[in-house]
Design a protein that fits this description.
single chain; about 290 residues; alpha+beta; 5-stranded antiparallel β-sheet; globular; DNA-binding
DNA sequence: CCGTTAACCTGAGAGC
DNA sequence: TGCTCTCAGGTTAACG
């Protein structure tokens, strides 16, 4: 599921509910996620306040009062849900990947906070949670990640230097978390369509103007998506709660054979395969 | 060190 | 209907 905008929206929503709230306990229904859920996680975190909730790359990081950090990664299909005790209603506004029923069998972890709880649901179980002790280890855990697209480290000099030393197509660079953290398969296609760059173009041949375009549209696309709640695929309507709507603004992704939306461009969107992942591009304006 | 491939999972949708 | 096949927003261990 989730690339930077989706994780950011989930984080903002989660933060509203749990910041400075005391976690009572954690019930693990299924510890077989991408990595096994830590054994003693409930003992470690029970009766502690969540003092910070932030996003690092595609991870959600919750700092607890004892300097333990809980890391949540949603993988492809992970979602968080709010359950209020009284009416037991599933509120979907922490969720992006929606099946029509949201099978309970994929509710793997329950975080109980007094009069509500947060559930981690993940059909494919590519997501995981991890516990990290202290700021130093947190830093260590994330040290291989490239800069966040909204930080000033993501600038012309950095990009130019990185592209120059790699021999790789630009699409694969964009989704490489070591280069830049947060972009995945959807937004890579979107950014390159806005920037009018062929996803297969070797990084070393990207011009200075194109670098400026990439930086500009990366921020623009991600910001816009966050603003309208991210991208939701497999929507459903029966349960209250917000879903994202960036999928309505897709220009390339999932638009095979449709017209390119760039101004005055008569092109058509092609679906091509790059490293076994679908990539969408205009056959005319993306050079 | 590098880059590429396979693997980890379930479910939706297409085609027959 | 129901079967089989392909594909899906991510990461990383294993390999050459």
């Amino acid at each position: 599921m989730p690339e930077l905008p989706e994780v950011e929206v989930v984080k903002q929503s989660l933060k509203k509910y749990i910041l400075n709230k005391k976690l009572l306990r954690i019930i693990v229904k299924n510890k077989k996620l991408r990595f096994p859920v830590p054994q003693n996680i409930s003992q470690r975190l029970s009766y502690l306040r969540a003092v910070k909730v932030k996003r690092v790359s595609k991870y959600i990081v919750i700092k607890f009062a004892n300097h333990f950090f809980l890391i949540i990664h949603l993988g492809m299909t992970g979602t968080l849900h709010l359950i209020r005790k009284k009416n037991k209603l599933m509120n979907s506004n922490l969720s992006f990947y929606q099946s029509k029923t949201l099978p309970k069998k994929h509710n793997h972890i329950f975080f109980y906070f007094g009069n509500f709880s947060i559930v981690f649901n993940d059909p494919r179980r590519f997501g995981f949670i991890k516990l990290i002790n202290g700021e130093k280890n947190l830093y260590k855990y994330f040290r291989k990640l490239g800069p966040d697209p909204f930080k000033k480290e993501f600038n012309f000099k950095y990009v130019k230097n990185y592209l120059f030393k790699k021999v790789k197509n630009i699409k694969n660079i964009l989704i490489d978390q070591k280069f830049l953290s947060g972009i995945g398969n959807i937004y890579a296609s979107e950014i390159l369509n806005y920037s009018k760059i062929n996803p297969l173009k070797p990084s070393g041949k990207i011009t200075n103007d194109e670098i400026i375009q990439i930086i500009f549209f990366t921020k623009k696309v991600l910001k816009r998506s966050i603003k309208i709640g991210g991208t939701t695929i497999n929507n459903f309507h029966s349960i209250k709660g917000k879903t994202g709507s960036y999928q309505k603004e897709f220009r390339a992704y999932d638009r095979e054979k449709k017209r390119c939306k760039n101004k005055f461009c008569p092109g058509t969107i092609l679906k091509i395969n790059i490293s076994n992942r679908s990539t969408y591009m205009c056959n005319i304006c993306q050079k």
